[in-house]
Design a protein that fits this description.
Layout lengths: L1 H10 L13 H18 L3 H17 L8 H20 L3 H21 L4 H20 L3 H21 L4 H20 L3 H14 L5 H14 L3 H16 L5 H20 L6 H24 L6 H9 L4 H4 L4 H5 L1
Helix pairs in contact: 1-2, 2-3, 2-4, 3-4, 4-5, 5-6, 6-7, 6-8, 7-8, 8-9, 8-10, 10-11, 10-12, 11-12, 12-13
């Protein structure tokens, strides 16, 4: 139904288009096209999604409301630009997606200032800032992404206090803190990056803690903070010993971190060659010890784990170890 209505909207073949000053059919047509864009996006048809949402924007801009500061019109137009971002990112058109987000921010910032208690307005602007932070990360512009997350997080914290228990707000806040922590570490801001990760672990949903423990340790290893990464991997192993974490996924996550730490040490030219080799081997031995334990306890049967061990790029150094094959037998 949406697809049919959307095609009629494109051809302006629904009755009464524009006859009401833009508040009736024109608004409905634009909203229909926006929904149509979402349908195409879910079907992974990004070209059609882009066409539909651009048509929605064009219809809104053709109405007499264009150029006004009527809040409902401005909010709807900003929402269209936010949807346009999805279609553009699906086609890897990052600069155009950022431009769409900038349009949305320009519209929403005055609205949020004018209506400080309006939750939907605050949420859309927070989503725009959050998305802008992510697009900056795509381009590895990590200082920029930190700045965008710094705009998003206070808005999300305000919303979380206004609407306690809202799952969507809590999850976006968690992700924003996580990505700010990653961006901070990748941009060299250790103090802020580590503090962000501590915050993430405090506010995270219980079901996300395992993934986040690995992510925090992995990003430390990947950015050369391998000693901190190993400390975090040791903590994961201790959680398994205490019986408070899943023995399969958590142990395998620790293995991955030890191998990533070994990779980081291997390229650290500040360490003398002999010591560097010895440290790489120590970390790989920790990984192998855990791998033996998993094998002895029948925890390597998962097809995902088997495939990752066999072909995963981050496991390459471990596969090259002379004892690796004997552990898997």
């Amino acid at each position: 139904v949406l697809l049919v209505l959307g095609e009629l909207a494109r051809r302006r073949e629904l009755p009464g288009v524009g006859s009401d000053g833009g508040l009736g059919w024109s608004h409905k047509l634009a909203s229909t096209l926006g929904n149509m864009a979402t349908v195409y996006y879910m079907q992974q048809d990004m070209n059609q999604a882009e066409d539909a949402i651009r048509d929605s924007i064009a219809i809104r801009k053709e109405t007499p409301l264009a150029g006004t500061t009527i809040p409902q019109y401005q909010y709807a137009l900003a929402g269209d630009y936010f949807t346009l971002k999805n279609a553009l990112l699906g086609q890897r058109q990052i600069p155009d997606a950022e431009q769409a987000l900038d349009h949305a921010a320009e519209i929403m910032e005055p609205l949020v200032a004018q209506f400080p208690d309006n939750v939907p307005y605050h949420l859309l602007l927070a989503k725009v800032y959050y998305a802008r932070g992510r697009t900056s990360m795509f381009g590895q512009r990590y200082p920029d992404s930190v700045s965008w997350f710094d705009l998003a997080i206070p808005l999300l914290e305000h919303l979380a206090s206004r609407v306690p228990g809202d799952v969507q707000i809590a999850l976006i806040l968690q992700h924003a803190c996580e990505l700010r922590g990653e961006s901070g570490l990748r941009s060299g801001d250790d103090q802020a990056g580590l503090a962000d990760w501590d915050r993430v672990m405090e506010i995270a949903r219980p079901q996300d803690l395992g993934r986040l423990r690995f992510s925090r340790a992995a990003i430390n290893a990947e950015t050369g903070r391998y000693q901190r990464a190993v400390e975090l991997a040791d903590q994961m192993v201790e959680l398994v010993h205490q019986g408070t974490d899943d023995p399969s996924s958590t142990t395998f996550s620790a293995i991955r971190v030890y191998v990533l730490a070994a990779d980081a040490v291997a390229v650290d030219e500040s360490i003398p060659d002999e010591r560097r080799t010895a440290q790489v081997n120590r970390y790989l031995e920790r990984a192998l010890t855990l791998l033996r334990s998993m094998s002895a306890n029948g925890l390597l049967e998962s097809p995902e784990i088997q495939q990752f061990l066999s072909t995963g790029e981050e496991m390459r150094r471990l596969r090259e170890h002379p004892e690796f094959r004997s552990v898997l037998r």
